[in-house]
Amino acid sequence: MHAQTLTRLVKRPVKDTYGRFFGHVIGFSLDSSGQMKGVGVELGSGSFKEFPTERVILDGESIILLPEWREQVEKLKKNTIVAQKRSEVLDDLRSEGEVPQYVYEELKAKYGAEITELRSSFDSITSILKTRVKELESTRMDVERFLGGLKVQFRAKEIDEETYKAASESTVEMMTRDEQERSEILFTLTWLTGTAKLGDSQDGAQGTEVVAESGAKEDAPTAIGEPAESTKGSISPDSSGGSPTRETSGSNNNQPLESISGN
């Protein structure tokens, strides 16, 4: 997108893929051809951060920011497919007598080094995602405590129903957005731990362990790197002051990528 086109986006609000407010655009950095390479954002706290174009989606007049973990997973996903395909093709070429043995050995060593690097990436990203799940769990507990206090005030007639309903709906909306991200992360962890069975770097029980710790039973999002549907894992407020109810729908049609082969 050219600089002139970007001008109208200055001061526009920036949200993430879950609808959470991040800040406002204050400008853009451009490459030598005048194309956008980064977006400068004034965060809600008053601080500044520049985000690369890989994390930015321009949707009409809206600017949407991809979570950093999702960008990393998509990049790893792409590299995994390439490494797997190259290894398979090289084996086929050798069996067909299309490459000399020394060429095969050199390329096999090269691809082996790439696979070793991917193993390290799987471990690193898995750790990042587990940390993010814990952050979301902690936030949910804080919000649930706050919502509990609202219910007490409403039942005690300290606040009227209109005030309680507005406050509880806003609180539940926040919980729903966090729940969508948590659902995506848990599904991604299942893919990571399943695909990362490349040898001895991980055991397959880690993904199950994370799901069990978080108590997640929601459907997975339709695809890695896409926002979860708003109806999945949604939480509805109870205007009577009771506990909010969780509504889930949809099915999981995702299939994890095959493991990288080092044949």
Q: Keywords for this structure?
A:
2 domains, SH3 type barrels, alpha+beta, 50% helix, single chain, 263 residues, six-stranded mixed β-sheet, disordered C terminus, elongated
Description of the molecule:
The structure is a single chain. This protein is of the alpha+beta class. It folds into two domains: 3-66, Roll (SH3 type barrels), CATH 2.30.30.240; 68-263, no CATH class. It is built from five helices and eight strands. It has a six-stranded mixed beta sheet with strand order 4-3-2-1-6-5, with no helix packed on it. The chain has a two-stranded antiparallel sheet with strand order 7-8. The two termini are 43 Å apart.
Itemize the secondary structure elements and their pairings:
Layout: H1 3-6, E1 13-16, E2 21-30, E3 36-43, E4 48-52, E5 56-59, E6 62-65, H2 68-95, H3 101-155, H4 161-195, H5 206-214, E7 234-236, E8 245-247
Parallel strand pairs: 1-6
Antiparallel strand pairs: 1-2, 2-3, 3-4, 5-6, 7-8
Q: What is the total tally of β strands?
A: 8
Proportion in β-strands? 15-25%
Report Rg.
23 Å
Strand order of the largest sheet: 4-3-2-1-6-5
- Overall pLDDT, averaged? 76
How large is the count of helical segments? Answer: 5
Which descriptor suits the 3D outline?
Answer: elongated
Rounded to the nearest angstrom, the distance between the terminal CA atoms is 43 Å
Low-confidence stretches: 197-235, 245-263
Order of helices and strands: HEEEEEEHHHHEE
